[in-house]
């Protein structure tokens, strides 16, 4: 690879694009239910999930549990 090649994390890029899309769509925000309880599960690395989840949601998330399939 050349020195001008940029490696992109597809999970982060997708989360960034979706967050941007939702910010520009106020009608979606208005329809969302507020005050619910969130439970987080992942089959991936818990810390990676937590970091991406916090960026996506724009706030800290609590406990993340491992889902074993």
Structural class based on helices, strands and sheet pairing = mainly alpha
* Main pleated-sheet profile: 2 strands, parallel
Strand content: 5-15%
Instruction: Write down how many β-strands occur, each being a DSSP E stretch of 2 or more residues.
Output: 2
SSE order, one letter for each helix or strand: HHEHE
Q: What gyration radius follows from the Cα positions, in whole Å?
A: 15 Å
Please state how the strands of the largest beta sheet are arranged side by side: 1-2
Oligomer: single chain
Briefly summarize what is shown.
This protein has 69 residues and is mostly helical.
Give a description of the structure.
This protein has 69 residues and is mainly alpha-helical. The protein has one domain. 48% of the residues lie in helices and 9% in strands. It has a two-stranded parallel ribbon with strand order 1-2. Helix 1 runs parallel beside helix 3.
Q: Any descriptors?
A:
mainly alpha; 3 helices; flat; 69 residues; two-stranded parallel ribbon
Layout of helices and strands, plus pairs?
Elements: H1 10-24, H2 26-31, E1 40-42, H3 46-57, E2 64-66
Parallel strand pairs: 1-2
Helix pairs in contact: 1-3
């Amino acid at each position: 690879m050349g020195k001008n090649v940029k490696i992109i994390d597809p999970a982060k890029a997708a989360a960034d694009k979706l967050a941007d899309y939702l910010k520009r769509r106020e009608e979606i925000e208005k329809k969302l239910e507020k005050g619910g309880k969130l439970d987080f599960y992942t089959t991936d690395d818990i810390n990676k999930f937590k970091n991406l989840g916090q960026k996506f949601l724009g706030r800290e998330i609590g406990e993340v549990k491992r889902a074993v399939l």
